[in-house]
Specification:
- By secondary structure, this protein is an alpha+beta fold.
- It is built from 11 helices and 15 strands.
- The longest helix has 29 residues.
- It is globular.
- The termini are far apart.
């Protein structure tokens, strides 16, 4: 019995060694433009998202080619970054991986499956884009009909992608392909709300849930939950957030007896800039003793923010240099994000569309 036990322990030890064995990989990248020569390509992993990366290797691009070699255990979601911030996502695993421009042309098992998945999603996207263009240019449709058709197209596209991603995830809950499709097309799907997300995350399992970018998205949904409509606003402080360089707090403006439209924006954001005339209209329409506007500049550079405030005629209250503090706190994933807060500090509406600002403020003031 003792010999059998020792044998079993020995076999278990061998199995563990096998599971943790480092295996070689190579990544050969071909770049179509000669302009990249004598610059560097960077191999990165992701901590919490596409902007939060960990640089793990670099390679000089020579004759349109860069090569990375190393060893790895299992699989890992990686990216190749080149200036100016061009990237391709792929899976680092044992074997020879070949990347052409932004397309994987010859890969390993998981990369081949990732390429097949992307081919499907590209096909669905192209079909949706054709339908979108037809609806957008159809002169026989009213604005309401056009909007309804476009919403239907987006929902259909998002549903197909979500279903396909879920199918892939079902057989890849313990590897990087599962992490990648969950991150890209389940967690960030257009039709995914925080309630559906909780269910999908539970189905995905711990390996997926503990991946850095997924944990960041989970935190975002939790922040949305804690700052949802009907809850009191959550305060934040920006050290030099006022235009004169002094400290600014959200509580300096909200919960003071006036309805406040809070606008999270950035100077580089086209939709943010296009929303400004609608915000200005509300600012000028409603009495200042009952209503005010507060724009909060996030994810932006100081000088760019100041230039945009002047150029866009943003005469109302502003908090600048807020970076990610308020968007993390409120779980904001995209801007502009317009939030309507009642006179007592209760959050009335989140994600107000620019075209609906006047209606939303009217409803708030007429309560």
């Amino acid at each position: 019995m003792k010999k059998v036990l020792n044998c079993m322990l020995a076999l278990a030890s061998i199995a563990l060694v096998g599971c943790s064995e480092e295996k070689p990989y190579s990544i050969t990248c071909h770049f179509p433009s000669s302009k990249t020569d004598s610059t560097y390509a960077y191999l990165v992993t992701f901590n919490s998202g596409l902007r939060d990366v960990n640089y793990i290797d670099s390679a000089l691009i020579e004759n349109g080619r860069a090569v990375f070699v190393g060893t790895t255990q299992g699989s890992e979601v990686c990216g190749i970054y080149t200036a100016p911030r061009k990237r391709i996502l792929f899976i680092k695993e044992a074997g020879d991986i070949k990347i052409e421009g932004t397309e994987l042309i010859i890969g390993t098992k998981l990369n081949d499956e990732w390429l097949d998945y992307r081919s499907y999603s590209d096909s669905v996207n192209n079909s949706a884009a054709e339908l979108y263009n037809i609806a957008a240019k159809n002169p026989e449709l009213t604005e309401e009909e056009r909007s309804a058709q476009i919403d239907e197209i987006i929902t259909d596209y998002s549903t197909k992608i979500l279903n396909k991603a879920s199918d892939v995830l079902a057989t890849h809950k313990k590897d990087a392909l599962g992490q990648l499709v969950f991150w890209m097309d389940i967690a960030n799907n257009e039709i995914m709300d925080r309630h559906a997300y909780k269910q999908k995350l539970a189905e995905a399992g711990e390996y997926i849930a503990e991946y850095g970018p997924i944990k960041a998205i989970t935190a975002r949904f939790e922040a949305q939950e804690s700052t949802s409509e009907g809850k009191m606003f959550t305060d934040f402080t920006i050290e030099h957030g006022n235009l004169d360089g002094t400290e600014a707090k959200l509580s300096d403006y909200v919960g003071k007896g006036k309805v406040v439209l809070v606008d999270f924006w950035a100077s580089w954001c086209g939709p943010c800039r296009r929303a400004m005339p609608k915000i200005a209209e509300a600012y000028k329409t409603f009495p200042s003793e009952k209503f005010q506007v507060l724009s909060v500049a996030v994810w932006d550079k100081h000088d760019d923010t100041l230039e945009a405030i002047e150029k866009l005629g943003m005469e109302w209250n502003n908090i600048i240099d807020a970076d990610t503090a308020p968007t993390n706190l409120y779980g904001v994933n995209g801007i502009p994000h317009l939030m309507l807060i009642d006179a007592d500090g209760t959050i009335l509406r989140r994600g107000v569309a620019p075209d609906n600002i006047i209606t939303a403020v009217n409803e708030a003031l007429s309560k």
